């Protein structure tokens, strides 16, 4: 059994499980005024401080959400609405075409329902947005832009974006920029204050925390229009009773992710390099996706295209041998569509159908890599016989 | 001579999301085979299709199939065969109606998708067989060849829509429900017992790719709107109008909307559809009697019979059996009926049986009417 789909979700860290289970037995709504409520609130606020510290933010900048999807929706829709309300000319939205669907579909929705004009920024063959391209897009009319959203690192091919440079361009024009940092957190230094971003999404279950909890890091000058209305929790921006056990566990995982980031990148990066080399050795015509330079991609990501293969066939064959990986992101799995990320990088659509993403994590071992090395060539050969249907 | 091989096989179970295919997959797994479930996505845009629980290509069906696979404890995938399905089944369906024939899309799907596109891919990926929830029986003879027979329960038999399978396809087909002598209620009870939530799901009846069951509307959309034409009697006298000859079926009585009664006061039936001049011919029920037919594109389960032979034939899904003499002449099957039969529609299959054994299948091309003894259709 080789679990190589950590970008979909990674096992919870024992420390996070301990923190969560301890809190599950404690009563108290963090919004209540009595002693039980105060106790819960203290846990939440301490957790918030821990997360803020791990992410280079102030505690008040941590808006807790139900996960990455909600944080992305809040940033994209909320900032769009707020900026348009302040000036009705601002209906242009700049986004990278390689975003996760949580951003991409929110952006599309604004285009269909809220009169947004979406402009997808050009990317290079590795799926990277260049600051000059952003500047050029802004300069077409700096006054009609509502917001900008570009992910910190791509979930499929692992390409890292020059987020600080991009954010600097956005700040020059006083336009709020959001980055989905779900895949970056734990693997790269994601210092919110230094990033210059207005908003940044993180999620707990990608770093060893629980499902169902994430955060939008939100600069104090920004007040997005809420998506969820109710009790006014989280700076009146995100209503809803806080999930205290999940928040506590998120904080523990966040602390460990930040403390262990350099070791993780080194160790997992070395395993990833081994895996990439083994796959390319076993299947010489396989193509490594994303930026081949180690500094240009997430250390835990290895993405390949196998000419003449259906990614689905490969996944089935590897799954049957206990190897868990993905053809793209889990959210698009189901009906096979060539990945929008690969299409945006100019990959041939037929080639884009034969992709596999291996993503490593804190439980990955050399034996996992060896299993892939043994299985990949026969699987590719068989999948090629089955061909592209 | 059991239906499911005793040797453990790697089996790909086609799971529509319905109760039959779920129970079939469960039985195959229980018999010790290494089963993987697959749901075929047959529409490029599943949400545009029906949302009820009666079709075979909605997101809900896909979820039901996945749930069933989880309960059975087998891997499950969705395979996108939408393009092949559109080309081989939907486009063929439309073209057949356009030509005035009455196609059977389920049969075409078995022939071109389930036991061709899907089977080929399955074999290439290392599977030994494709398993479906069809009611038919595959018998392994002592010489290693296979025969297909009607299901043990004649009322549920689906060998008619499987008659197009040749022996090679049959060698890799598994129908775990084929020797079931149980009612549909008992299959549902079995599903319930196995913890399959599809136990109570309604049966699918209609054509899966026509969302609302409105075949006429679907065809009108594909063939460019209603084109009004004449309904004429056997003498060629106009008796009414229709909104497009396509979509009528030989033997159809309802939906003709002829305002005035026939001279003899008896109901009139569709006798002939002529797409070239957009004319539908109607007449009395007796005029539907057919004494012979020719059929093309024969497919034999085993070797093609040499010389004339006596068989029973089935002429439409859920149709009865009739005694025939059949002979293959230059690739065309000539079939004569012992007694005249009614409602024979070109485009449908004629499936020949020797007792319960499927001999072969061919597509009806022309029919010979009793009175006029002239080719029609």
TrEMBL record, chain A:
Q: What is its EC number?
A: 2.8.1.7
The protein's UniProt keywords, in alphabetical order, are: Iron, Iron-sulfur, Metal-binding, Pyridoxal phosphate, Transferase
Does the keyword Iron feature in the UniProt annotation? yes
Q: Which GO terms describe its molecular function?
A: cysteine desulfurase activity
Please report a single Pfam family linked to this protein. Answer: Aminotran_5
What residue ranges carry the coiled-coil annotation?
none
Q: Which cofactor does it need?
A: pyridoxal 5'-phosphate
- The UniProt record lists the Aminotransferase class V domain at 3-371
Q: Which reaction does it catalyse?
A: (sulfur carrier)-H + L-cysteine = (sulfur carrier)-SH + L-alanine
**PANTHER family documented for this protein:** CYSTEINE DESULFURASE (PTHR11601:SF34), CYSTEINE DESULFURYLASE FAMILY MEMBER (PTHR11601)
Concerning its family, UniProt says:
Belongs to the class-V pyridoxal-phosphate-dependent aminotransferase family. NifS/IscS subfamily.
Please give the name of this protein: Cysteine desulfurase
Tell me what organism the protein belongs to. Answer: Streptomyces clavifer
TrEMBL record, chain B:
- What SUPFAM superfamilies does the annotation carry? Adenine nucleotide alpha hydrolases-like
Q: Where is the tRNA-specific 2-thiouridylase MnmA-like C-terminal domain?
A: 291-364
Residues at site: Interaction with tRNA? 134, 348
**Tagged with keyword Mitochondrion:** no
Span of the signal peptide = none
Q: Which UniProt keywords apply?
A: ATP-binding, Cytoplasm, Disulfide bond, Nucleotide-binding, RNA-binding, Transferase, tRNA processing, tRNA-binding
Residue sites binding ATP per the record: 14-21, 40, 133
Write out the annotated subcellular location.
Cytoplasm
EC top class named in words: transferase
Catalytic residues as annotated in Swiss-Prot or TrEMBL: 109 (nucleophile), 208 (cysteine persulfide intermediate)
Output the Gene Ontology terms for molecular function: transferase activity
> tRNA-specific 2-thiouridylase MnmA-like central domain location, by residue?
218-283
Reactions it catalyzes: S-sulfanyl-L-cysteinyl-[protein] + uridine(34) in tRNA + AH2 + ATP = 2-thiouridine(34) in tRNA + L-cysteinyl-[protein] + A + AMP + diphosphate + H(+)
Q: Which domain of life is it from?
A: Bacteria
Q: What is its EC number?
A: 2.8.1.13
Q: Where is this region: Interaction with tRNA?
A: 156-158
CDD domains named in the record: MnmA_TRMU-like
Matches recorded under Gene3D superfamilies: Adenine nucleotide alpha hydrolases-like domains, HUPs, Translation factors
What does the function comment of this entry state? Catalyzes the 2-thiolation of uridine at the wobble position (U34) of tRNA, leading to the formation of s(2)U34.
The record's similarity note reads: Belongs to the MnmA/TRMU family.
| Descriptive protein name | tRNA-specific 2-thiouridylase MnmA
**Organism name:** Streptomyces clavifer
């Amino acid at each position: 059994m080789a679990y190589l789909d950590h970008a979909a979700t990674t096992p919870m860290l024992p420390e996070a499980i301990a923190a969560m289970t301890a809190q599950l037995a404690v009563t108290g709504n963090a919004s209540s005024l009595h002693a039980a409520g105060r106790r819960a609130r203290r846990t939440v606020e301490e957790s918030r401080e821990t997360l803020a510290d791990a992410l280079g933010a102030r505690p008040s900048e941590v808006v807790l959400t139900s996960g990455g999807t909600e944080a992305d929706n809040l940033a994209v829709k909320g900032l769009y609405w707020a900026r348009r309300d302040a000036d009705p000319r601002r209906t242009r939205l700049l986004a990278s075409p390689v975003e996760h669907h949580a951003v991409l579909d929110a952006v599309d929705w604004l285009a269909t329902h809220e009169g947004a004009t979406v402009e997808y920024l050009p990317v290079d063959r590795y799926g990277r947005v260049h600051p000059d391209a952003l500047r050029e897009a802004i300069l077409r009319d700096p006054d009609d832009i509502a917001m900008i959203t570009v992910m910190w690192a791509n979930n499929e091919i692992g390409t890292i974006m020059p987020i600080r440079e991009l954010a600097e361009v956005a700040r020059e024009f006083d336009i709020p920029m959001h980055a989905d940092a779900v895949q970056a957190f734990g693997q790269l230094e994601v210092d919110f204050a230094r990033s210059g971003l207005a908003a940044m999404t993180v999620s707990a279950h990608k770093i060893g925390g629980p499902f169902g909890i994430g955060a939008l890091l939100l600069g104090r000058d920004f007040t997005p229009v809420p998506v969820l209305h109710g009790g006014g929790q989280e700076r009146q921006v995100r209503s809803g009773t806080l999930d205290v056990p999940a928040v506590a566990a998120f904080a523990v995982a966040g602390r460990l992710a930040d403390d262990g980031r350099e070791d993780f990148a080194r160790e997992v990066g070395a395993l990833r390099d081994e895996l990439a080399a083994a796959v390319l050795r076993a299947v010489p015509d396989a193509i490594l996706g994303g930026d081949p330079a180690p500094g240009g991609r997430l250390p835990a990501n290895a993405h390949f295209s196998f000419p003449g293969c259906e990614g689905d066939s490969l996944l089935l064959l590897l799954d049957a041998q206990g190897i868990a990986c993905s053809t793209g992101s889990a959210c698009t799995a189901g009906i096979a569509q060539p990945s929008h990320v690969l299409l945006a990088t100019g990959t041939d659509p037929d080639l884009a159908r034969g992709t596999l993403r291996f993503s490593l994590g804190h439980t990955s071992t050399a034996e996992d890599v060896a299993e892939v090395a043994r299985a990949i060539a026969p699987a590719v050969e068989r999948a090629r016989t089955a061909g592209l249907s | 001579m059991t239906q499911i091989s005793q040797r453990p096989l790697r089996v790909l179970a086609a799971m529509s999301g319905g109760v039959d295919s779920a129970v079939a997959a469960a039985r195959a797994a229980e018999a010790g085979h290494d089963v993987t479930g697959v749901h075929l996505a047959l529409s490029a845009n599943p949400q545009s299709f029906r949302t009820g629980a009666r079709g075979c290509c909605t997101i809900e069906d896909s979820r039901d199939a996945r749930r069933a696979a989880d309960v059975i404890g087998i891997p499950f995938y969705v395979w996108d065969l939408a393009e092949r399905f559109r080309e081989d089944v939907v486009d063929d369906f439309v073209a057949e109606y356009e030509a005035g024939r009455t196609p059977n899309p389920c049969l075409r799907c078995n022939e071109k998708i389930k036991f061709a596109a899907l089977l080929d891919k399955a074999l290439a990926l290392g599977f030994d067989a494709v398993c479906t929830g069809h009611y038919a029986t595959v018998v392994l003879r002592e010489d290693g060849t296979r025969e297909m027979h009607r299901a043990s329960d004649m009322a549920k038999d689906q060998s008619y829509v499987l008659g197009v399978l040749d022996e090679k396809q049959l060698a890799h087909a598994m129908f775990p429900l084929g020797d079931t002598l149980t009612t549909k209620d008992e299959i549902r009870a079995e599903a319930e017992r196995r913890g399959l939530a599809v136990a109570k799901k309604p049966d699918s009846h209609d054509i899966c790719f026509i969302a609302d069951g409105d075949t006429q509307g679907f065809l009108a959309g594909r063939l460019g709107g209603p084109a009004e034409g004449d309904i004429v009697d056997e003498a060629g006298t106009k008796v009414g109008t229709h909104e497009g000859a396509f979509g009528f079926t030989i033997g159809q009585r309802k939906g003709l909307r002829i305002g005035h009664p026939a001279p003899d006061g008896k109901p009139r039936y569709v006798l002939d559809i002529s797409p070239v001049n957009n004319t539908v011919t109607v007449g009395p029920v007796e005029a539907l009697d057919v004494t012979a037919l020719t059929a093309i594109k024969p497919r034999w389960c085993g070797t093609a019979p040499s010389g004339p032979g006596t068989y029973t034939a089935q002429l439409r899904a859920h149709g009865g059996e009739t005694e025939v003499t059949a002979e293959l002449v230059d690739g065309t099957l000539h079939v004569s009926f012992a007694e005249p039969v009614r409602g024979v529609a070109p485009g449908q299959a004629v499936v020949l049986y020797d007792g319960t054994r499927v001999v072969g299948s061919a597509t009806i091309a022309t029919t010979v009417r009793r009175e006029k003894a002239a080719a029609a259709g």
